[in-house]
Prior knowledge:
Blueprint: E1 5-6, E2 9-10, E3 13-18, H1 22-41, E4 44-50, E5 54-56, H2 61-65, E6 75-77, H3 78-81, E7 86-96, E8 101-106, H4 107-112, H5 117-122, H6 128-132, E9 139-142, E10 145-148, E11 152-153, H7 162-165, E12 167-168, H8 174-187, E13 194-199, H9 203-216, E14 220-226, H10 233-236, H11 240-253, E15 256-259, E16 263-266, E17 271-273, E18 278-279, E19 283-286, E20 291-292, E21 308-309, E22 315-317, E23 320-322, E24 327-328, H12 342-360, E25 374-378, E26 384-388, E27 391-394, H13 395-409, H14 413-429, H15 451-454
Parallel strand pairs: 3-4, 3-10, 4-7, 10-23, 12-19, 13-14, 13-19, 14-15, 21-24
Antiparallel strand pairs: 1-2, 5-6, 7-8, 8-9, 11-20, 16-17, 17-18, 22-23, 25-26, 26-27
Amino acid sequence: MTTLVRGGHRARYRVVLLGGGYVTLHAYAGLMRHAGRAVRAGDVQVVVISTDDAHSFHGFTGEVLAGLLPYDRTRTPLVDAMPHAHVVLGRATAIDADRRVVRYVLADDEAGRHVDPQHDSDSDSGSHSDANSDPHHERVLDYDALVVGTGGREPATAVPGLAEHGFTLRAPGDIAVLTERVREAAAHRGLRRHTVVVAGGGMAGVEMAAAVADLGGARVRVELVHSGDAILPELRDEQPRLARRAEQELRRLGVRVRLGVRLASVTEDHAYLSDGTSLPATTVIATIGQRPVHVPGLDAHRDPRGRLVTRPDLAVVDGVWAAGDAACVVHPTTGEPVPANALWAIKGGEHVGRNLARTLRGRPTRPFAYRGLGQAASFGVGRSISELYGIPFTGWVAWVLRLTFFLRFMPSRRKAAQVVTDFARHAAHGRNAPAPAGPAVAEPAVAEPAVADLAAARTA
């Protein structure tokens, strides 16, 4: 087995976390809360393997796109969020649960071979590991416990031209570039209006359409395309009043909603719909669902959608845990898979962290018992809808509830405080508020440990 050696001390237990999203951050937090002393003492080693050096907090994506918050607020370097973990910038290529090893390639090695990890993540499960993993660059790391929190990606390759000409919400940097493009379009004084097409009428799509319309104003036309017969299907059945309020907000902002059609293809200057309609659009945003990021291995434990099927305690097999978008987690009361959203990933990660701590102490694990909280969407400052334990809220009350919830789960207390300051500045000055100090894009984190350290031998 291998280990990272610090000051001659050898860890007796290694936890490897795959991904830099909600599951990883909250599994780490849960482990530190219940077994932090062992981690700080070096008896337990935590290694994170992530293709991105920072965590993206998606809760305020709409506010960033609307120009209310700087992009930097949503990005927290992993080494800051998990100070007692060793962060490796790389991509997991295979899991061998029998030998308890994970294979990975470093980001620098992939960059040298001109491999795009984002493109790999969007491809169908199966052969991409063989095509893109050079055995001379592939590295092997053993583990005692592995947490698969690789999440999901929008299936950009499913729509011709989308990967080349469109934007997605989960690709690092896309929101920053998209915000600047919409801001430039809003400032344009020509006769032609800039058209933005948003594909997908769920919570994310509705929020993005509203944010673009809010920022772009009269100079930007927003078209929301949804394949169903009504937007917000996840909300409409149980909270029809909130769904109707969302439709009213979109009309207020001038968003045109096209129902019963899909985004069929995208070119540099057009979006083509499934009914034959051609929209002259230079900006297309996809919120068309997601596919789990596939790491080869454990294929016998996947559902038809490629998600890892978990036991009640969120273990997949002995020594391997999963939660979030990469996992099929069953709701403790309904028996149905839980929704693929940030809240369930956060709660799933927390539970995995607690069960890791219980395993370290030799105690039995506990089943996942979280039953849900609610959902929310924002259409501007003071204009929101939210549902909390089945109770609907609108307007300022809904907006404050949503803000409070998101601030609670931001991985950085400093950035959460900055968000409060940003909103206070906006309340005092409106869109003429002075720009906050600091970088527009998060500074790249310095990853550790060195590869040589990870290759050091560990005694049994």
